[in-house]
């Protein structure tokens, strides 16, 4: 009996190790369709998040190749393309952004790791300014509590960079009803409102503000995914987070939560490969 139990445990551990080896080195493509009567023309956008300087193939050749196969009209970035860790650089993230910007318009919302570079310059001297300068030189203007209107599709894209207190461990700080209006202003009328907001925990606040679609990341799919239970652990160190990955709705708002592409701190993904998300925008008439 004891031998059978030990054998069973060893088999489970072996399966987990094989999954971790495979899923930490690959990504899958996930597609969603978004319909609205305010979208005037069909388009498709790729969504990237949480690369954390990971490279799929030489200089991210596999990732770039897959994006080219899918031929998006634009690329959305939901933050944390680099990792704010002492001694690391941002070369991998910036190199990917430069290559994508050469072929597509890129709309970049910052995550908490990009934000940390700017908040802690003593730990990351010159990195925030250097990374943003590199993005701008490539033709990417990060949306830091700003908006841009795409008249061809009648889509207005907002990028929200919320305060660091909303990324605390163990505790979800309440977000006041007027907070997002103070950051982003009143949402546009008669346009489709797309909000890039790295942290999905505040989806209801984003919906109340007026977002038609929220694209997020941050949670890495919960690091490990279990059947029926979903993601196991969030970056805020809560077990089985409500928002771990996939499609969610709140009122008339939809959130597409990417499981991200890379990892940090716990550099493994179990039963949880990285995701390249493709979004099809369709006029609903």
What does this molecule look like?
Helices cover 26% and strands 24% of the residues. The protein has 285 residues and is α/β, with parallel strands linked by helices. Strands 5-6-7-8-12-11 form a six-stranded mixed β-sheet. Strands 1-13-2-3-4 form a five-stranded mixed β-sheet, covered by helices on one side. A two-stranded antiparallel ribbon has the order 9-10. A hairpin with a 2-residue loop joins strand 11 (246-250) and strand 12. The relative contact order is 0.20.
Summed up:
The protein is an alpha/beta fold and 285 residues long.
Instruction: Give a quick account of the main beta sheet: strands, pairing sense, barrel closure.
Output: 6 strands, mixed
Q: From N to C, what is the helix and strand string? A: HEEHEHEHHEEHEHEEEEEE
Radius of gyration based on Cα positions: 19 Å
Overall residue-averaged pLDDT value: 90
Q: Percent of residues in beta strands?
A: 15-25%
How many strands?
13
Read across the widest sheet, the strand sequence of neighbours is 5-6-7-8-12-11
Share of residues in helices: 25-40%
DSSP helix count? 7
Q: What's the oligomerization state?
A: single chain
Q: From the helix content, strand content and strand pairing, which structural class follows? A: alpha/beta
Estimate the global geometry from the Cα principal axes: globular
N- to C-terminal distance? 64 Å
Stretches with pLDDT under 50, minimum 5 residues: none
């Amino acid at each position: 009996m004891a031998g059978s139990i030990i054998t069973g445990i060893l088999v489970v551990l072996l399966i987990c190790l094989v999954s971790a080896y495979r899923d930490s080195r690959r990504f899958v493509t996930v597609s969603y369709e978004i319909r609205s009567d305010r979208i005037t023309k069909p388009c498709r956008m790729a969504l990237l998040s949480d690369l954390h300087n990971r490279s799929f193939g030489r200089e991210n050749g596999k990732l770039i190749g897959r994006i080219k196969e899918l031929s998006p009209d634009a690329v959305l970035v939901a933050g944390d393309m680099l990792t704010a860790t002492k001694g690391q650089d941002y070369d991998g993230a910036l190199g990917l952004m430069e290559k994508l910007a050469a072929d597509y318009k890129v709309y970049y919302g910052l995550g908490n790791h990009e934000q940390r570079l700017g908040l802690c310059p003593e730990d990351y001297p010159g990195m925030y300014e250097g990374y943003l300068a590199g993005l701008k030189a490539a033709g990417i203007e990060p949306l830091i509590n700003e908006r841009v209107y795409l008249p061809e599709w009648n889509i207005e894209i907002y990028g929200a960079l919320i305060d660091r207190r909303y990324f605390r461990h163990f505790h979800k700080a309440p977000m006041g009803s007027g907070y997002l209006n103070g950051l982003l202003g009143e949402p546009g009328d008669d346009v489709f409102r797309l909000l890039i907001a790295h942290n999905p925990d505040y989806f209801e606040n984003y919906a109340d503000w007026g977002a038609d679609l929220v694209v997020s990341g941050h949670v890495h799919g919960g690091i490990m995914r279990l059947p029926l239970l979903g993601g196991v652990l969030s970056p805020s160190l809560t077990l089985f987070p409500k928002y771990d990955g996939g499609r969610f709705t709140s009122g008339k708002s939809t959130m597409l939560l990417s499981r991200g592409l890379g990892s940090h701190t716990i550099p493994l993904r179990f039963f949880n490969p990285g995701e390249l998300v493709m979004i099809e925008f369709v006029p609903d008439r």
